[in-house]
Amino acid sequence: xxxxxxxxxxxxxxxxxxxxxxxxxxxxxxxxxxxxxxxxxxxxxxxxxxxxxxxxxxxxxxxxxxxxxxxxxxxxxxxxxxxxxxxxxxxxxxxxxxxxxxxxxxxxxxxxxxxxxxxxxxxxxxxxxxxxxxxxxxxxxxxxxxxxxxxxxxxxxxxxxxxxxxxxxxxxxxxxxxxxxxxxxxxxxxxxxxxxxxxxxxxxxxxxxxxxxxxxxxxxxxxxxxxxxxxxxxxxxxxxxxxxxxxxxxxxxxxxxxxxxxxxxxxxxxxxxxxxxxxxxxxxxxxxxxxxxxxxxxxxxxxxxxxxxxxxxxxxxxxxxxxxxxxxxxxxxxxxxxxxxxxxxxxxxxxxxxxxxxxxxxxxxxxxxxxxxxxxxxxxxxxxxxxxxxxxxxxxxxxxxxxxxxxxxxxxxxxxxxxxxxxxxxxxxxxxxxxxxxxxxxxxxxxxxxxxxxxxxxxxxxxxxxxxxxxxxxxxxxxxxxxxxxxxxxxxxxxxxxxxxxxxxxxxxxxxxxxxxxxxxxxxxxxxxxxxxxxxxxxxxxxxxxxxxxxxx
Length: 553
Known about the structure:
CATH topology of the largest domain: Beta-lactamase
Structural class: alpha+beta
Shape: globular
Radius of gyration: 26 Å
Distance between the termini: 99 Å
Number of helices: 12
């Protein structure tokens, strides 16, 4: 055998295979890029508010693009390197700062918070730093109380801001429940200052941004000149308006960082290469925290822990005045996706998940199968969780709907026997039967987080619409103040009546009686009351377990 000839043939064959592989890979990337473009351009249209997006696989950025506008007033197109407020994505930076200080021996995660904030009223509980990290402290979140609207524009120092919420009643005993909490992460920032001797802004710049090579990230400021800063917007009825002002001192360590999609990617690479904390420390941050009863929380230290098409994810979103952001990391595939939006009307959450699914090769393409109407009726009813919250499964013609009490109604479609998927979502619902073959429960799978709803014998609520003349409808027109600064505007167009809450879109309401109206998009009712003069002066909103009363202004 001529070995020289064999070697030549082998080399030629290898060159062919390498050439074919090189051609196939760009073709695959090109197809993915085209799908990414399609997904993003459908939501972020030319001439409207925009987004920046990035996709990286195994340490290589394969996609980085922007859509829409960065500034509508100055007609500035969005660019991929523009700077956004990232909101609660800040929390992972705060968490890593705490873990750095832990590694340095300056604190323990089991320290009572009074070690650093001696005058904090813990209401006879031991509240640890770990409770703050995992949203299990029971402290009431300062952004969830009506009073927040009264001071959101004030430049409050950390101790003054803490004074605003520290005496609020606890929501639950520490470690017994999970409830997303901005107060907890605010307190962590203050603890960072006490333990390090630096301001929070100084600490993250020196110990996080610089080591990670994040050259376009800062602690948020409206006074500073920030080049390439995208403007933020929000909806107001059918219009887009500039975002309401919010002092950037107020989100603090819970949400004040500004960054770019590529800087967030640099942050990811610095973390997983253990430049910022040790491997075992990072693994603890990426481990699901368990409550005192052993139940999981789907949260670690500063990150949500979910699944996407069967692959584990480490992720977090951010929502702050004018901006919505999302970052997802899939460790098994070493894949990172970030999408930042400069409008609170356009969430990047679903599109970033769809992009990651496409990059995985498992795009969202659930297919509905035909099911007879009488079979669909087997699933209808009221389902309750352990807290008594309800989920309603209803049918309208051949369409089945799922609606959490007080929430939005979603179409669900059959994909297999007793299994449904939510419209345009990765979430599925599986109905389990008892030994007699009757539906006993519904298990909602929200990307690996399972929640069981037990079927009850309670009858579904019914609303029967009646017709009221435009003259009668006009009597309800006006603005009703539910809480200071939060108005419910009632308007009439012909023989139709609408409600519109501050910062939200216009929603049609339907009369059930002359004083009671119901909504179809959410499970809610409005009851109007007259004053002594016979004029409608008050409205009561019932939505789930929430009851709010508003006086006509």
